Amino acid sequence: MYAHQTHDLDDLTTSLPVDDFEFSPTAQAEAEAVLAAGPAVTYHRLLADQESQTTLLVARRVLAAFLAAEDPGAGPVTADALTALVAGARAELAPTAARLTATPADRAVALRGRAPVALLAGCWLDTVSQPATQPALVVNRLYAQYFALKGGGRPQHSVPQRRRRALEDAGVLLPQPEEADFLVRARARPLAALHGAFLLALSRLPAAFLPEVVGVQYAFHALGLDDLLNGTEPTLAVDELLAEYLELTERSDTGAQDRRRLAAAVRLVVRIEREQLALLAELVSHRAGLSVDARAAEIVERHRPFAGRQHKNVKIGGKLLSETFADPQFDLDAFMAEFRASRQLRPLRSGGCPFTRAVKFGGPMFGIFDEAEAEVFKEWAESVAAGEPAGAPLRPDTSGDEQAAHWQRAVLATAPPDVRFAEASPADDREFFHRLVNIEQFPNTLPLAARTAEEGLERAELLFRHGAGGRYTDASWFDYTAEALLERVDRIYWDKLVGPYRALQEVPDRDEVIFHQKTLALGSLIDGTWAYRIGNHGRYHRQSDAMLFSIYADEMGRGELAKNHITLIRQVLASMDVRLPHIRSAEFLDQGELPDELYRFSIHQICLALFPDRLHSEILGYNLGIEMFGLGEMRLHEVQKLRRHNLDTAYEEAHLSIDNFSAGHARQSAEIIVSHLDGVRREAGEAAVRREWRRIWRGYASFAWFVEHQLVNSLATEADTADDLVI
């Protein structure tokens, strides 16, 4: 077992309360359209669109279909039984995996067929760490493994990137999975897309399906099909995770149900991986059975939709090639027969034929086909020149289609009883905050969250003119250069955060110190939230993303409870005898410790966090503000006051340390912005840098708006609204 002694503050949650999922009525038809469009569209939508309620409804439908396939069972669930089940399945699959990768050609086919699943490694953990789940013990176990899968904050060392390199070594070059043509380039079968869609669906609703996440994490890594195919050692040791989770369920009111849910997820993964291996076997068998004529035809059919009119006067069978390819009644077999007999394949005295010459460097078709495709055409042309008869024509690839049809029917037929439709209309800030924390349960709140974030950002631009008057920040506008940014943050650090510090000559009484800590507590209980979605699959490529992901990982202690900032603030509050329900709970709606006027700051932060794509630049600026705020006078005074009254100082001291301006989060936050804008400059030029910089700085200003309540109040007559808030 993990070395951990439980105590009163440990969050031993094994599942969140089961509740309905609430969507706007418009999401219903949109989700139906996505699902009806087929597995490829479902897969792409789940990966590429991470910010809409339609995607979450698609996810709920997919999960309902897959999870209904395995009976949770009624018998006892034990670690030994599940371990034996998965070990037996691994022993069963290993010989087939070895056979399918025994030759370079078969290996390339198998790895390509597996890519839509293999490159999603660990996606189901993308948002398992979030305001609704932290600081649960099992969530931190999962997050530690997630951090390892992500390469410890270095994308090039992540498991998906290692698998991409294995694909490249096998001669398979693919775009990123979120790109529109990924499944086409991967020649993905519908079954592979549906299996991937299940994993992506789980990644969108991990809080609601925490037992299933644990089961999937355990089964995928213990079974290790990708390791079997790649001949690599297991990526993670997951037996302890399973054992500890099952031990936690023994102390949970929902333990019996949670164990059954986990066991069903484990069995589902075993089923999926068996289907995956059967699919790969069909793909390899199909490829092995293709004649060289059929392999050439397959390449023609793959490229035909992109042929356009660039072939000018080239004719095959007496008809312009551009017209032939545009013909809706195009007959591939007839075309290949005519192509075989055309002058394009007639041998040249100097070697080769006009077609293979055109494909080589310097020819008009160079670069259209990859090396493997060019080699097939060369082999085909040589067989034609040798007078060999045409081989069997291309037959449709139906690998996995029967099982795919089963899953697709299930997805289309499912109607989860826990889905209801209504517009979001929170009565007050407390209810709005509750919905944002539990966004998986209230996806219909996303449009309101987007509007709220944008309103806060627009309002904060007032500080572009007046921000120099801030006590802890300076959001006044300046034109960006890397040097100007670093000069500004240096000046804020020395002039506003460190320079003014003097030890307090008189410390407030205990009640006043505790009251002030309560004004800070709500923001602390969602520490790091602004960045919790930044490392998700589909968007973890830029260096700036990796750097911000690492900051969030630090805020969560990289999975170590003792270093987790949510644990630390709970520890501080406990030292003051302040006991709060979890912020996700209905009971928190009625808590009486934290004043109502505190909620707007936390609402703004979560609203930003929910849109890591459309508000990416604003999040970078907000991150700079909040990480610098952890330094200097304010924190030092809080430490002094807490120590005087023998109250816990761990949270304040952690920020003074980890946010340090030399190499800590404060310095890193400025470097993240520089890195991001350097990338923008390379890709889109200076005008784009100026646009992105304005967005970044309004993100910083939006943080300053909530910190500088005295300044904001003084500007109330100039602003549309001014919130008299502290954090």
Supply database-style keywords.
727 residues, mainly alpha, two-stranded parallel ribbon, 33 helices, globular, disordered N terminus
Describe the model.
With 727 residues, this protein is an all-alpha fold. The protein is built from 33 helices and 4 strands. α5 packs antiparallel against α7 and α28 packs antiparallel against α31. Residues 1-6 have low confidence and may be disordered.
List the SSEs and their pairings:
Blueprint: E1 21-23, H1 25-36, H2 39-48, H3 53-67, H4 79-100, H5 104-118, H6 137-149, H7 159-169, H8 182-185, H9 190-204, H10 210-223, H11 225-230, H12 239-249, H13 255-288, H14 292-303, E2 315-316, E3 319-320, H15 321-326, H16 332-341, H17 354-359, H18 371-385, H19 401-413, E4 419-421, H20 429-437, H21 446-460, H22 463-466, H23 482-498, H24 510-525, H25 543-555, H26 565-575, H27 599-609, H28 616-628, H29 633-644, H30 650-658, H31 665-684, H32 686-707, H33 709-714
Low-confidence stretches: 1-6
Bulk shape: globular
Could you tell me the mean pLDDT? 93
Helical amount: 55-70%
The neighbouring-strand order within the major sheet is 1-4
> How many separate helices?
33
> Strand-residue fraction?
under 5%
Largest sheet descriptor: 2 strands, parallel
Number of strands: 4
Radius of gyration: 29 Å
> Structural class, please?
mainly alpha
What gap, in angstroms, lies between the N and C termini? 39 Å
